[in-house]
Amino acid sequence: MILYIFTILLLLIIAPLLIGMIKSLKMFLLYKKPVSIFQPYATFNKLLIKEVIISHESSIITRIAPLLVLSPLLIVLLFLPPVVHGAYYIGFVDAFTIIGLISLSTFFLMLLGLDSGNAFGGMGSSREAFIASLVEPAMVLTIFSVGLMAKDLGVGNASINLATHFPIEHASSFLFAGISFFILLLAENGRLPIDNPETHLELTMVHEAMILDISGLYLAIIEMAVSIKFIVFASLFVTLFMPYGVNLIAPLAILVFVAKLILVSVVVALIEVNGAKLRLFKVPNLLGISIVFAFLSLITFYVLGA
Asked: N or C, which end of the chain is more exposed by having fewer CB within 10 Å?
């Protein structure tokens, strides 16, 4: 139980660090002076002391929505697979529970954008709904496929089974599922090529458009939710698709886990530096590839046994 609580606290602490690392690495690769990887912590502290200004057109939804965006993601943290073999974890939670909670957070974020009463908020919310409707089916298929290969549909149990006995005979299915999930990681976190988290150009905004009208504490909560959402997806990716290191002693296993999270962040930064944002109507093509890979994973598992 101590390791369980320590892991959750560790994820909360390093969540903004991964976002800062991505931004710093991108600036370095673009030959700019990189910001500190601890900049998100400074930004969070600055937002806490800034004045909260709320639009006159907004309702009480704007006041409660930020907490409702953050709360489901904090609950998901409790359901993540263990990073150390033998540590306490909740094993009965399946893909539908985790995806449902993440979708609930997205729903309240869209509600926040709509409540602002301006055109950009509604535009961002509609685009987010459009992307989420394509992401969620692919995510269910992908995690379901991994659960079948791990012989347990519970996410925590699947991770332990994969770490104990990796299904090398199903390497093809596993690879297809991994590619599908990584595309979903980029899409659900608003990273390039789906969305540009650093843009404020009206015609291309998705996530930023929904939070244009909030400031101070409310914006700090949303920024914290963004970093937690990223670390949730990164943790699911490294525990399900890179399950090595769980059987090591606790300190070493935790170090390996953090190193894998950093590796995912570096790959995301490299993709963003070397890629461009897709047009909105090209996004279904990329997410369609994710769905195809998820189906390929299931088909190769059932038909070919590979």
From this structure: N
